[in-house]
Amino acid sequence: MRQELMSLPKTLAEDVAKNLVMVAKLLDDEPERAYQYSRVALRLASRVAAVREAAGFASYAVGKYSEALAEFRAARRMTGNSELWPVMADCERGMGRPERALAMAGEPEVQKLDRAGQVEMRMVAAGARRDMGQADAAVVTLQSPELASNSIQPWTARLRYAYADALLAVGREDEAREWFAKALEADQSGSTDASDRLAELDGVEFVDALDLEETADLEETVEPEETADGDVSQPVEESPAEESEADEPDVDERLSDEDMVEAEPEAGPEADDAKDVEDSKDVEPVAEATSEGQAAGPDEDGDDR
């Protein structure tokens, strides 16, 4: 990669290198941020194969398989090697085309892969079989000398895990448990969740310590107070309505005598009108008749006329 960057102007090469470093640093834990850094590097140096490859892996990590496949193809054209062939096939799976991934597993490019690449291609092919509903064929696809070997290689844990998962898919639970245990034994970097799968098969449930503390806090209750008669009194909570009534002062308390006097309306025409309204309250209301002699009200559709 350094040789590829040396073809760029010094300042540009430094900027591209910084973005690629951030992609590698964030790819596993913060793939979205890694993807953003990869897009910056791609804008700066789209003709550098290492940049196209990094952009492909960042897109792959966030599930943008179409973008990833395009970047991998570009990087392969620039370098001429086939090491990206398995991940390109897996992009086909991600795009819902497992038959294409399976076809790629039979191409001559697979023979150009190193041992690790061939194991990776076998796992992709097994996944494609399962996508197509061929679970038994997936089990057969994973059976290989690398699976039977007792030596621990970088791919061993993932290969054993894939085989255990395929066995479980066809109902061979006892064998699946055995291979999950073997995968856990080889998984020195914690690249799989084999321990969780084993616990699930054994019926063991892990409980977070923080969840236990929260449950204990919820179970704490208020100790009841004992009255003078020896009875235990239960705490009584005031309703919101009672609290508001208790806090609301009386009108008489809020207004002084002087304020109340000032609040009274002055005598005049408006006061006379108010008196007439007050007197009219004693008269029983009569429904207003419509032109047809019926009381006004909603029409047949329920709307007011």
TrEMBL record:
This is Tetratricopeptide TPR_4. Gene3D superfamilies: Tetratricopeptide repeat domain. InterPro entries: TPR-like_helical_dom_sf. Residues 272-284 have a biased composition (Basic and acidic residues). It comes from the Bacteria. Residues 216-229, 239-271 have a biased composition (Acidic residues). Residues 216-305 are annotated as: Disordered.
